[in-house]
Design goal:
Blueprint lengths: L5 H13 L4 E2 L24 H5 L8 E9 L1 E2 L2 E2 L13 E9 L5 H15 L7 E6 L3 H10 L7 E4 L1 H4 E3 L4 E12 L21 E14 L5 E14 H9 L8 H14 L9 H21 L8 H20 L6 H12 L5 H4 L1 H33 L4 E2 L1 H11 L3 H9 L4 E2 L1 H15 L11 H10 L3 E2 L6 E11 L2 E3 L1 E3 L3 E6 L1 E2 L13 E5 L2 E9 L6 E8 L1 E3 L3 E6 L1 H25 L5 E6 L4 E6 L6 H17 L3 E7 H6 L13 E7 L3 E4 L14 E10 L2 E8 H22 L6 H34 L4 E3 L2 E7 L5 H15 L3 E8 L2 E8 L9 H8 L5 E5 L3 E6 L5 H10 L5
Parallel strand pairs: 1-2, 6-7, 12-13, 14-19, 33-34
Antiparallel strand pairs: 2-5, 3-4, 5-11, 6-9, 8-9, 9-10, 10-11, 15-16, 15-18, 15-24, 17-23, 18-22, 20-21, 20-24, 21-22, 25-26, 26-31, 27-28, 28-29, 30-31, 32-33, 34-35, 35-37, 36-37
Length: 878
C-alpha cells in the first residue's frame, strides 16, 4: 500500500477531479455565509446548499473541494469523544466532488472507485459498499460496471443510506464505501455486525449522496428535474487507511502537531489510552480547531460560536495543565498548526500573529480563574456529602464567575463518578439571558417569493457602478407578501427591475434610496435589499399606478450616494492605516457604511492610544489629500489575492471578484460603490473606538461635511468648558486635572466623616443584638452610602461581637444593598453566602460570597428591614 501523506492525498484528489472537468473551489469559511441554520460549516456541501436548491447559480456544473469543517456544537457535537476514540475530531477536512444537475450515479460511483483503487491503491478485497434498500440502479452499477461481488453490496435502510437536507426539500439515497481494517480491532458486540457495527473494523471512507427527490411536507417524494451529486470523504480518515494506521492521530497532519506537544511537555506520546496520550490528542485536535476558527473571525466569548470556541480552548488548556504545563503553551501548538496547514490554507499564515495573540490571551485569562474555580468546585463537592449530583446553580456559578464551561465541570465530576444537574444549569443560564435581554439572532430567511423570482428572472443587472439613473422594466411586484400585477398611489410594494442603478444592501454598505418615475407615475424608493441576488426596491407609490412589464426611470438619491461612497472609500483607507499603525493583525471583522457615518470593526486587543488615533487620522487624511484615483477591476479570486487584495474571511466570494484600488497601496475585494478620487472623501475624523468583543474593536468615524461639523462641535465644547473653568483652551487640561484632584480630595474627606459617624453610632446599633440558638446576631439597617463603608462597619461590629453574625442593609440611589458577615469560628455551622442568598430575593436581588463575608444587591429598598428580620429565623439549632 502506498505511503502517501495526507497532503499528497488532498492534492491528488483535487487534481483527479479537475482532470474530470470539475472546478476546484476553495474552502468556504467555517462561519457559514447567509445560513442561520448552522453554527459552523460541517460538511463540504454547505457552501453549495443554495446551488442545490436553485437559489443560486454558478458558471460551472461540476465542483471539487477540500472543505474545512468543525463539529463541536448543536446537532453535530463530537467534543466529548475527542481524544478518546480514533476518529472523532472537532476540526477536520472533508474532500468532496459535486454535480449540479450534470452527471449522476454512474459517473459518481465510477470515479469514487477509480480514485480509491487506482489513485490510493486500496485493496479491492477489503472494500464493501452499501446502497439504499430500494436503490436498484446504484446496486446494479456497483455489480455490473464496477464488478463488486454481490455479497459485498449491502442494502440498508433510511437510517444508514438515505440523506436529506431537512424535513422537507432535496433528498435522496446514498451509497457508502467501507474499508475492512481487520479483526485485530476491538468490538463490543458478541459477534461483529460488519459494516453496520459501531466498531472500527469496517470503516466508512466515502459517502456518495444521490440527490434526486424533493420531499414535501406530507412526505411525498417528487423526482427533481436535475438530479445532483454530493460526496464526502474525510481526509484524516482516508489518510489513516492508506497509511495502514488504526488511528487518525497517526496521520502526518495530526502527528506533527502531537510531536510539538511532546516537545513542549517533555513527555512521549504512546498512542494508547493513558491519560497523557488522551490529553495529547485533545490538545492537538483543539489547537487545530482554535487556529482555524480564529482565522475565520470567531473569537472566544460567552455565547454562540464564541462560546463553543472558548469551550474548545479551555478544554485543551485544562488537558495541558494535566500534562504539567505551568506556563502558557496553546499558542505554541497553534503555531505548529499554522506551519503544517498554511500551504493548503494560506489564511492561517496571514492571520498567524492574531491567532497566537488570541490563544495566549485566552489561556492567561483562563489560568487566572482556573485555580480559583477549582477551589470553589472542591468546596461544593465537600458540601455534597453522599449526594452524587452537583446543583445546576453551583455549576452555573462556576460558568458565570470563573469561566468554567459546563462540559469542563462535567469532565471533572465524571472523573469522580459524579454528575451535574443540567436542567438546573440551563434554567440559571436562561434566567440570566432573560435578565440581560440577551439572545442569539437566527438571521433572516430568504422569502420563498424572492426565491421564485430569482429562479424565473435571474440576478438583477446592476447599473450603479457607472450611473445613478437608468431605464428598467418591472419584472415582478408584490404587496404585503403577495405577488400582484398592478399597484396604485398610496400603496407600498416591493419590486424588481431587469436593470437598476440602485445598490442593494450588502457587504456592509446600506442600500440606495431614490425615485422611480414614468409618464403619470412616481414612487419613492425607501430601501433596496438583496435576497437571492435580486435588487428588491421597496417603493411607496405617490402618483398614478404601475403595472408589471412597464418601463420606469430609476434615479438614485445622488447626494446620499455621494456620502455613502465617501464613507465606503474611507473604510478602505482606514483599514490600510490601521494595519500600518498597529500591525498586520488589525484586519477588518465587519463594517457598516451609511450616509451619515462609517463603522469599522477590526482585530486588536488594546484601545487606541491618543498617539495611535492621531497617526491613523493623519495617514487617512494624507491619502485623501494625495487625491489618487479609484481603479476597479474584475479578476479571478486567486489572481486578485496574488496581487495582494485583502479579503474578509466569512464573506462569500465567487470565482471572479471585483477589486478596488485607491492609490498604490489600498487594494481590497469589494462590490460596493466608491469615490472616483480619494479627494472626494473630503476630510476624515474618528469619533470613537470601543471594544465590542474579546479581541474585536469598533471605530466609528465620519467624513466630509459631517467630519467638519464634528470638529466644530468639539471646538464649541472646548470654548464652553473654558468659560466654565475660566481658562484659555491651552490651559484647559491643567485646570481640569486640578479640579478632578480637588473633587477626589473632598470625596475622601466625606468618606472619613461618614466612617467617623458610623463608628460613633456603632454602640447604638448593638441595641438590636439578639441571641438565637446560642449565636449572637445583629441585623439592622444603616445609613452608609458606599459598599466599602458598609464592609468596614461590618468588620468593626463583628470585632465587637467576638463571635456571631452581623447583617447590615443600606439604601443608595433607590437600590438595596445587603451584607452578611460571620465570625470565623461559626463558618462551619453558618455560611455568609448561604444566608445572603436566602434573604436577597426579598429585595428582588441576588448575591453570594465567601463563608465569612457575602453581599447582595436588589431593586426593592423598601423591603430591606423585612430581609434583615429574616436572618434571625435562619440561624439553625446547634
Amino acid at each position: 500500500m502506498s505511503a502517501l501523506t495526507a497532503t499528497e492525498i488532498r492534492n491528488r484528489f483535487l487534481v483527479f477531479f479537475a482532470a474530470h472537468d470539475h472546478r476546484v473551489v476553495r474552502s468556504s469559511s467555517l462561519v457559514p455565509a447567509n445560513d442561520p441554520t448552522l453554527l459552523f460549516t460541517n460538511a463540504g456541501m454547505v457552501q453549495f446548499k443554495d446551488v442545490f436548491t436553485g437559489r443560486e447559480t454558478r458558471d460551472y456544473q461540476r465542483a471539487t473541494s477540500t472543505q474545512k469543517c468543525v463539529r463541536a456544537g448543536g446537532k453535530h457535537n463530537d467534543l466529548e469523544n475527542v481524544g478518546v476514540t480514533a476518529r472523532h475530531h472537532t476540526f477536520f477536512e472533508m474532500l468532496g466532488n459535486f454535480s449540479f444537475g450534470d452527471y449522476f450515479k454512474e459517473d459518481a460511483i465510477r470515479w469514487s472507485w477509480d480514485f480509491l483503487v487506482g489513485e490510493l491503491g486500496l485493496d479491492v478485497d477489503r472494500l464493501t459498499v452499501t446502497v439504499f434498500r430500494d436503490d436498484d440502479e446504484a446496486a446494479e452499477i456497483w455489480e455490473r460496471q464496477i464488478r463488486v461481488p454481490r455479497e459485498r453490496i449491502l442494502r440498508l435502510g433510511e437510517k444508514d443510506n438515505f440523506w436529506q437536507m431537512g424535513d422537507t426539500g432535496p433528498c435522496g439515497p446514498c451509497s457508502e464505501v467501507h474499508y475492512f481494517q481487520g479483526d485485530h480491532l476491538p468490538c463490543s458486540e458478541p459477534t461483529c455486525l460488519g459494516v453496520e457495527c459501531e466498531c472500527d473494523r469496517h470503516l466508512e471512507v466515502w459517502n456518495l449522496v444521490f440527490m434526486q427527490f424533493d420531499r414535501s411536507a406530507d412526505g411525498t417524494l417528487t423526482p427533481l428535474p436535475k438530479p445532483s451529486i454530493d460526496t464526502g470523504m474525510g481526509l484524516e480518515r482516508v489518510a489513516a487507511v492508506v497509511a495502514g494506521k488504526d488511528s487518525n492521530y497517526e496521520v502526518d497532519l495530526l502527528r506533527d502537531v502531537i510531536a510539538e506537544v511532546e516537545a513542549a511537555s517533555g513527555k512521549t506520546y504512546g498512542g494508547g489510552m493513558s491519560e497523557d496520550d488522551i490529553s495529547m490528542r485533545v490538545i492537538a485536535d483543539h489547537a487545530r480547531a482554535t487556529t482555524f476558527l480564529v482565522a475565520d473571525g470567531v473569537m472566544p466569548s460567552n455565547e454562540g460560536r464564541g462560546y463553543v470556541l472558548r469551550r474548545i480552548m479551555r478544554r485543551g488548556i485544562r488537558h495541558g495543565k494535566r500534562l504539567g504545563f505551568e506556563e502558557v503553551f496553546l499558542s505554541r501548538i497553534c503555531e505548529r498548526v499554522v506551519s503544517v496547514m498554511s500551504e493548503a490554507f494560506p489564511e492561517l499564515a496571514e492571520q498567524k500573529a492574531f491567532i497566537l495573540e488570541v490563544a495566549t490571551r485566552e489561556e492567561k485569562s483562563f489560568r487566572r480563574t482556573l485555580d480559583r474555580g477549582l477551589r470553589i468546585l472542591e468546596q461544593k463537592l465537600e458540601e455534597l456529602g453522599d449526594a452524587k449530583e452537583l446543583a445546576g446553580a453551583d455549576a452555573f456559578l462556576l460558568y458565570d464567575t470563573y469561566g468554567f464551561p459546563l462540559d469542563l465541570t462535567q469532565v471533572i465530576l465524571r472523573e469522580r463518578g459524579l454528575t451535574v444537574d443540567e436542567i438546573g444549569f440551563q434554567k440559571a443560564l436562561d434566567d440570566q439571558k432573560a435578565g440581560s435581554g440577551g439572545k442569539l439572532g437566527a438571521g433572516e430567511a430568504v422569502d420563498d417569493l424572492f426565491l421564485s423570482w430569482a429562479e424565473r428572472y435571474g440576478e438583477t443587472d446592476f447599473l450603479g457602478y457607472e450611473a445613478e439613473a437608468g431605464e428598467g422594466r418591472v419584472l415582478a411586484m408584490a404587496r404585503e407578501g403577495q405577488e400582484v400585477a398592478e399597484a396604485s398611489a398610496g400603496q407600498t410594494v416591493e419590486l424588481i427591475l431587469d436593470r437598476s442603478p440602485f445598490y442593494a444592501e450588502s457587504g456592509g454598505q446600506v442600500g440606495d434610496e431614490g425615485t422611480l418615475t414614468a409618464e403619470g407615475f412616481a414612487a419613492k424608493v425607501s430601501q433596496t435589499h438583496k435576497p437571492a441576488g435580486l435588487h428588491v426596491h421597496v417603493c411607496e407609490i405617490t402618483e398614478g399606478s404601475l403595472k408589471v412589464e412597464q418601463k420606469v426611470v430609476a434615479s438614485v438619491d445622488g447626494e446620499r450616494r455621494r456620502k455613502i461612497r465617501a464613507n465606503h472609500s474611507a473604510t478602505h483607507l482606514l483599514h490600510l492605516a490601521l494595519q500600518e499603525t498597529l500591525g498586520d493583525h488589525a484586519k477588518q471583522k465587519g463594517s457598516l457604511v451609511a450616509p451619515d457615518l462609517l463603522r469599522f470593526d477590526y482585530a486588536h486587543f488594546e484601545p487606541l492610544s491618543e498617539e495611535e488615533t492621531e497617526a491613523i487620522e493623519r495617514r487617512v487624511n494624507r491619502l485623501v489629500a494625495l487625491n489618487a484615483p479609484s481603479v476597479t477591476e474584475v479578476l479571478g479570486f486567486e489572481e486578485a489575492r496574488g496581487k495582494g487584495a485583502m479579503a474578509i474571511f466569512g464573506e462569500k466570494y465567487g470565482d471572479s471578484v471585483r477589486t478596488v484600488r485607491i492609490g498604490e497601496e489600498s487594494l481590497e475585494l469589494c462590490g460596493g460603490t466608491h469615490v472616483e478620487r480619494a479627494g472626494d472623501i473630503g476630510f476624515f475624523k474618528i469619533v470613537s473606538d470601543a471594544s465590542i468583543a474579546s479581541g474585536i474593536r469598533r471605530i466609528v468615524a465620519v467624513t466630509g461635511e459631517a467630519a467638519v461639523e464634528r470638529v466644530l462641535e468639539e471646538e464649541r465644547t472646548l470654548r464652553r468648558a473654558g468659560e466654565a473653568l475660566k481658562a484659555a483652551p491651552r490651559e484647559l487640561a491643567a485646570r481640569a486635572e486640578a479640579a478632578v484632584a480637588r473633587v477626589k480630595e473632598l470625596e475622601r474627606e466625606v468618606h472619613r466623616l461618614e466612617q467617623k459617624l458610623a463608628t460613633a453610632s456603632s454602640s447604638d446599633l448593638l441595641d438590636n443584638l439578639r441571641e438565637v440558638h446560642g449565636v449572637k446576631v445583629l441585623a439592622t439597617k444603616v445609613e452608609v452610602k458606599e459598599a466599602k463603608g458598609l464592609r468596614e462597619l461590618a468588620d468593626k461590629l463583628r470585632d465587637r461581637l467576638g463571635s456571631g453574625v452581623v447583617a447590615l442593609g443600606a439604601e443608595n440611589d433607590g437600590k438595596a444593598t445587603l451584607l452578611v458577615a460571620v465570625t470565623k469560628d461559626l463558618t462551619g455551622r453558618l455560611r455568609a453566602g448561604d444566608l445572603v442568598r436566602e434573604i436577597a430575593p426579598l429585595v428582588d436581588g441576588r448575591g453570594g460570597g465567601k463563608p465569612d463575608l457575602a453581599q447582595a444587591g436588589g431593586t426593592r429598598p423598601e423591603a430591606i428591614e423585612q430581609a434583615l428580620a429574616r436572618v434571625y429565623d435562619l440561624i439553625p439549632e446547634a
